[in-house]
Design a protein that fits this description.
It is built from four helices and ten strands. It has 189 residues and is an alpha+beta fold. It folds into three domains: 96 residues, no CATH class; 48 residues; 30 residues, no CATH class. Strands 1, 2, 5, 6 and 7 form a five-stranded mixed β-sheet that branches. The chain has a three-stranded antiparallel β-sheet with strand order 8-9-10, with no helix packed on it. α2 crosses α4 and α3 packs across α4. The longest helix has 18 residues. The protein is globular and about 60 Å long. The chain starts with a helix and ends with a strand.
Length: 189
């Protein structure tokens, strides 16, 4: 398989695979990725300003979705820009939503799996620690919450749930029309 075929399968817009390595005994696939020639717009991760010149670059290794039975990691060239407002910052890459060593597609797959299964099951499925799955799920839910459409709140309900002697009560605030919980926590005395 040629590198341009790997580029099509990977499907990261604006990037191309320039090298690959397959280990059949360990069932791993490593892809080295860099920007395509026309993709020279670098975005500051601090303020969002666009640049054409890079300060320098380094390689960052992230885990991506598996390709069949092969565990896939992508080594991507990430540039740093010299922003007059923020200083030297790493560029913003849409495929890398955080500093964690996972691609956005991988985090989305873990987050979707967490919707219908327990953390332990998802951790076993993706061969991750349960704490890592919880952290990925939290980032996934934060991205989801930031992009979802929020209905206007017209009627609000407040209720308390008894949680035992130690915790006493938990207060739940919800939208009465949709039944969606908006906030919950322990009331301070």
């Amino acid at each position: 398989m040629r590198d341009n075929e790997f580029t099509k399968i990977l499907g990261w817009p604006g990037y191309r695979v320039y090298r690959h390595e397959i280990d059949e005994t360990a069932k791993t696939l490593r892809l080295w990725v860099r920007r395509k020639r026309g993709n020279r717009k670098l975005i500051c991760s601090g303020c969002g300003r666009k640049f054409t010149d890079a300060h320098d670059y380094n390689e960052r290794e992230v885990r991506d979705l598996p390709w069949g039975e092969y565990r896939t990691t992508v080594v991507i060239e990430v540039y740093r820009v010299c922003c007059p407002q923020c200083g030297i910052k790493v560029e913003k890459v849409p495929q890398l939503p955080s500093k964690a060593p996972f691609s956005k597609r991988f985090e989305d797959a873990v987050g979707l799996a967490c919707e219908s299964a327990s953390v332990r099951q998802v951790a076993r499925q993706f061969r991750l620690a349960a704490s890592t799955v919880r952290a990925i799920d939290l980032r996934y839910l934060q991205r989801w919450s930031a992009t979802r459409r929020k209905d206007r709140l017209e009627q609000m309900g407040v209720d308390e749930i008894y949680f035992g002697k130690q915790m006493k009560f938990i207060t739940v605030v919800s939208n009465l029309e949709t039944g969606e919980p908006l906030w919950f926590g322990q009331a301070t005395e």
